[in-house]
Design a protein that fits this description.
Length: 332
């Protein structure tokens, strides 16, 4: 535990217009204050630098000059079902009520990170979105946000009864579905290490390393364990053909997964791509390969061709989604 004062005990006047928002992934935790003027005091902390989420929250508050915090909302990369939270891709675990009490908060709201991003969808502007391919949005039809980071997040937004409702999902853990013989070979390789191969196992940041190792084996090359950054670096070099193929395969696999979510949800309101990996890939993300695979659904090719896909370019849409929610409420 940090020796700093609990969040609510700092000696300033309370400003109830502000509340702390946090987007906690497997690698980084992003923090800001949400208030009447939008988001402010944005910081990014490495999860590995802090023993627990309470330590990270204290460290954030200690780093800023702002009113004391009485309310907080956390978007976290794990299922949220009850009081006990245990992250899927990091060691942090906590009780929501104990965390609230430890930090002297009046209210603490915790939700899945992609559910928080879904809350931001109606407020996103064209400046926050990069179109990938064609299609026309049906404004009141379901929308889906998905994307690879340390894991593979998914959430939906459905319009009913005159309002939008967010539907959290763990769709990234559905079984991976190969679309050609090479991907079938990648699946066979992955089965030697994991009895269940989810889409997340391959379509994620760590998945880039696994795809590359599998392609090395498939192509009869020496199997190397390269991190995502090194794969991207080598892809731009003359000797980096296998790394370039890894990134192309990854883009296609994401297209297949996005299409599966689109037909499952009837997401004619559009597919939104979030998560840190696609943004970091930059031009190495093969948009044409993604969209071609997205539409490659046999008899449903025309259905998918009509659905627009975008990459969210907003720096932290989960925080923006949390900021749309009223402070002082501990219910979803």
């Amino acid at each position: 535990m940090s020796e700093q004062l609990p969040l609510g005990d700092r000696p300033q006047l309370v400003d109830r217009r502000f509340f702390l928002v946090a987007d906690v992934g497997g690698t980084h935790a992003r923090f800001a204050l949400a208030g009447t003027g939008g988001l402010s005091h944005y910081r990014v902390l490495a999860c590995a630098d802090h023993p627990g989420i309470d330590d990270a929250m204290r460290a954030y508050v200690a780093s800023i000059d702002a009113p004391p915090v009485r309310h907080a909302a956390i978007a976290i990369a794990t299922p949220v079902d009850g009081d006990a939270i245990r992250m899927t891709n990091h060691a942090w675990a906590f009780s929501i009520e104990e965390l609230r009490a430890t930090l002297s908060l009046e209210t603490l709201r915790v939700m899945n990170d992609f559910a928080a991003i879904a809350h931001a969808l109606p407020a996103l502007t064209p400046a926050d979105l990069e179109p990938i391919g064609g299609g026309t949005q049906q404004p009141l039809e379901p929308r889906c946000v998905l994307g690879p980071g340390t894991g593979l997040g998914v959430a939906a937004m459905v319009h009913a009864g005159g309002q939008w409702t967010v539907v959290p999902s763990e769709g990234g853990h559905a079984s991976f579905s190969p679309s050609d013989e090479v991907e079938a070979e990648i699946l066979r390789f992955t089965w030697t290490e994991h009895p269940h191969v989810s889409s997340e196992r391959l379509v994620s940041g760590p998945g880039l390393t696994l795809i590359h190792r599998a392609l090395c084996a498939v192509r009869g090359k020496k199997v190397e364990k390269l991190g995502a950054d090194e794969i991207v670096r080598r892809a731009a070099t003359p000797e980096g053909a296998l790394c370039a193929e890894t990134l192309s395969r990854f883009s296609a696999m994401l297209g297949t997964f996005a299409a599966n979510m689109a037909v499952t949800l009837g997401a004619r309101g559009g597919i939104y791509i979030a998560g840190g990996v696609v943004g970091k890939l930059g031009e190495h993300f093969d948009r044409e390969r993604f969209r071609t695979r997205f539409e490659a659904k046999g008899r449903f090719g025309g259905y998918l061709a009509a659905i627009p896909t975008w990459r969210i370019t907003h720096e932290c849409p989960a925080l923006a989604g949390l900021a749309t929610l009223p402070p002082g409420c501990d219910r979803l």
